[in-house]
Amino acid sequence: MSETLPAIEIETKPKPSHAVIWLHGLGADGNDFVPVVKQMKLPPLGIRFVFPHAPMRPVTINGGFVMRAWYDIAYQELAFKEDERGLRDSQKLIEDLIARENKRGIPSSRIVLAGFSQGGVITLQAGLRQPKRLAGLMALSAYLPMSPMVEVERNAASNSVPIFMGHGIADDIVPLALAKMSRDTLIKLGYEVEWHQYQMPHSVCPEELADIGAWLKRVLH
């Protein structure tokens, strides 16, 4: 079994009953989304926020520079020749984090898997294949990886998992069209997708954080 990823943890109350595992984007680290905990109106539950640090790896599109990344990107066209091994390796790392929360007394049904950009991609990669349904999946400024494989590889236990997708209409990293195509694929497969788009680039805005807080209140109970 692989070593569990190092992570920053914030608990809104002692002995939390719920967890949100939030994955950062390419080249960032777990600190990236720590501030959002105080910026969101959260449900009055004890929630453990887990912000893991992705492994260090060379990233082809950045000249092979070594940085924190959930998988390699070789082409500007993100869905072209995807790094299947990297995606599956990171899926396993996230499954280990979910298993750790299970051991700490938080069942999968009370865990939200969330992520921004590459982190949102891994959220969908791992979340749709879980043998136990999670409370929800949140993919921000992201897309569905290995799209043709999802129908075959998804776990029936996760067919009813609610999905939040948010995207900036001026995103110059992950094209809005790719995100919409991902949304449409998920809906066609029967998933309940809550879709939002915002007047922003490849980032997160206050309006989106408000929508995320409202969604968390609905899925965490």
Structural notes for this entry:
With 221 residues, this protein is of the alpha/beta class. It has a single domain, classed as Rossmann fold, CATH 3.40.50. It has six helices and nine strands. The protein has helices spanning 36-39, 84-103, 118-127, 147-153, 176-188, 206-219, and strands at 7-11, 18-23, 47-52, 56-59, 65-68, 111-116, 136-140, 163-168, 193-198. The strands form two sheets. It has a seven-stranded mixed beta sheet, sandwiched between helices. A two-stranded antiparallel sheet has the order 4-5. The longest helix has 20 residues, at 84-103. The chain is globular. The two termini are 31 Å apart.
Question: What portion of residues belong to β-strands?
Answer: 15-25%
**How many helices in DSSP terms?**
6
Mean pLDDT: 95
Compute the number of strand runs. Answer: 9
Strand order of the largest sheet: 1-3-2-6-7-8-9
Relative helix content: 25-40%
Distance between the termini: 31 Å
Low-pLDDT ranges: none
Identify the CATH class: Alpha Beta
**What profile does the largest beta sheet have?**
7 strands, mixed
**CATH-level-4 superfamily name:** Alpha/Beta hydrolase fold, catalytic domain
Radius of gyration (CA) equals 16 Å
CATH architecture: 3-Layer(aba) Sandwich
Spell out the helices and strands N to C.
Answer: EEHEEEHEHEHEHEH
CATH fold-type name:
Rossmann fold
